[in-house]
């Protein structure tokens, strides 16, 4: 039986748009369960779900990313909506009724999202970006980038390894390009580089990146804004990055970046 896990905050449950969303689910007699946005992965294992369960998120891009990580971890499809504010990973509520009806009748379309994976560890997907950044305020990171059997040295505050989906996030703030969601690529963008380095390099989806951080450096690695690794040891450390061959399925066929919202916001 189809059912929905509604991922949002308790505050959002009082939002008029969220109330309308819930009323439509009740009207259609679709079973759903509220899941708090702050739920931990280990807690989610206690939630009842099956292969016909949909993770429906209501909130901003942060909520959508949390839904995507849960969908990835537990092999569930995802559908995300925003409360009305600008969001690049969420759909308009004007589409809600149609998309839910299509999902219920199994006549829906979907797009695939391929996250960046570190060292082939699928437990830590990054749908927007992986960021390697210094923890010391006064010292630059010495980094080597190996790809296509070619090595490039870089001194910078850090480096952003972004998907096309995440190109409008931290990558753009650091001067990187906007890349269409349809193009499964990896974008390499330095953060405040000291050495001469192109503003960004865009490589194909099959590219494998080897990033070596030289010894005795204090740094952190963030996956979609969450710190997962912090290191400072007396040897060089190398991490491998690439796009996963496994994909997360997002309900709906709109794969266009929301350039109108994005550009209108930054060009005000």
Structure, described:
By secondary structure, this protein is of the alpha+beta class. It has helices at 16-27, 41-44, 61-74, 96-104, 170-173, 259-266, and strands spanning 3-8, 31-36, 53-58, 77-81, 110-113, 116-118, 121-126, 129-134, 141-147, 150-156, 158-163, 185-191, 201-204, 209-213, 219-223, 226-231, 237-243, 248-251. β6 (116-118) and β7 form a beta hairpin. The protein is elongated and about 60 Å long.
Span of the ends, CA to CA:
47 Å
Give the rounded overall mean pLDDT.
Answer: 90
Tell me, briefly, the overall form: elongated
Tell me the fraction of residues in β-strands, as a range.
35-45%
Spatial strand sequence of the major β-sheet? 7-6-17-14-9-10
Order of helices and strands: EHEHEHEHEEEEEEEHEEEEEEEH
Tally of helical segments: 6
Structural class, please?
alpha+beta
The radius of gyration is 20 Å
Quick one: biggest sheet?
A: 6 strands, antiparallel
| Topology, number of strands | 18
């Amino acid at each position: 039986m189809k059912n929905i896990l509604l991922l949002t905050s308790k505050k959002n449950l009082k939002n008029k748009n969220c109330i309308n969303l819930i009323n439509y689910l009740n009207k259609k007699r679709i079973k759903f369960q509220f899941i708090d946005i702050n739920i931990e992965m280990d807690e989610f294992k206690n939630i009842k779900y099956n292969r016909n369960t949909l993770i429906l998120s209501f909130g901003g891009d942060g909520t959508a990313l949390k839904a995507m990580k849960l969908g990835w971890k537990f092999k569930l499809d995802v559908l995300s909506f925003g409360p009305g504010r600008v969001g690049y990973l969420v759909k308009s509520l004007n589409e809600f009724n149609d998309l839910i009806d299509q999902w219920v009748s199994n006549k829906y379309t979907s797009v695939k999202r391929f996250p960046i994976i570190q060292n082939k560890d699928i437990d830590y997907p990054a749908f927007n970006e992986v960021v390697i950044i210094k923890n010391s305020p006064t010292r630059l990171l010495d980094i080597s980038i190996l790809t296509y059997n070619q090595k490039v040295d870089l001194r910078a505050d850090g480096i952003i390894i972004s998907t096309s989906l995440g190109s409008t996030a931290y990558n753009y703030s650091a001067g990187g390009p906007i890349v269409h969601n349809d193009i499964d690529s990896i974008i390499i963008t330095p953060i405040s580089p000291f050495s001469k380095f192109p503003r960004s390099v865009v490589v194909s989806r099959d590219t494998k990146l080897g990033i070596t951080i030289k010894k005795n450096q204090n740094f952190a690695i963030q996956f979609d804004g969450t710190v997962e690794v912090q290191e400072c040891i007396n040897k060089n450390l190398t991490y491998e990055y690439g796009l996963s061959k496994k994909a997360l399925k997002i309900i709906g066929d709109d794969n266009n970046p929301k350039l109108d919202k994005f550009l209108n916001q930054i060009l005000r």
